[in-house]
Design a protein that fits this description.
Layout (H helix, E strand, L loop, with lengths): L11 E3 L2 E7 L13 H18 L4 H6 L4 E11 L8 E11 L3 E10 L2 E13 L10 H11 L7
Antiparallel strand pairs: 1-2, 2-4, 3-6, 4-5, 5-6
Protein name: Tol-pal system-associated acyl-CoA thioesterase
InterPro entries: 4-hydroxybenzoyl-CoA_TE, HotDog_dom_sf, YbgC/YbaW
Pfam families: 4HBT_2
Amino acid sequence: MASPYDQPYRGGFDGPEHRFALTVYFEDTDTAGIVYYANYLKFMERARSDMLRAAGIDQRGALEAATGVYAVAEAHVRYVRPAKLGDDLVIVSSLEEVRAASVRIQQRVMRGDQLCAEGRITAAFLTPDGRPTRQPRDWVERFETIRTTPKEHA
């Protein structure tokens, strides 16, 4: 019999922002108990993947149908303050720009109301052979709808 604890955690949208919570585990830290800098990119990747899922974007289906896949084309990260072992974090993601063959996503790694890191990621939509191609039109429309949705909680 399945337990409710057998289901993976899913984030969700609060207006135009996607929120994804996680806890910093030992594997995420260095010997001083501080999150290793590259792991912020992993946290952001998990949040972006969950954001796409929550938006109804079927990346796996697109991959299996050989329609195309997203690949990070550019990443800028600014580290503000360290997150530490045991911290509960929320990655807040928002769509900054939607273009024909790419999307730019702004992400903030928050510990409560404190900013730990922020990133701006450009994901290009690529054909199976790695060439940029237009995103499916319905995906672009979903992104634009999300981008212009008013925030529910002030």
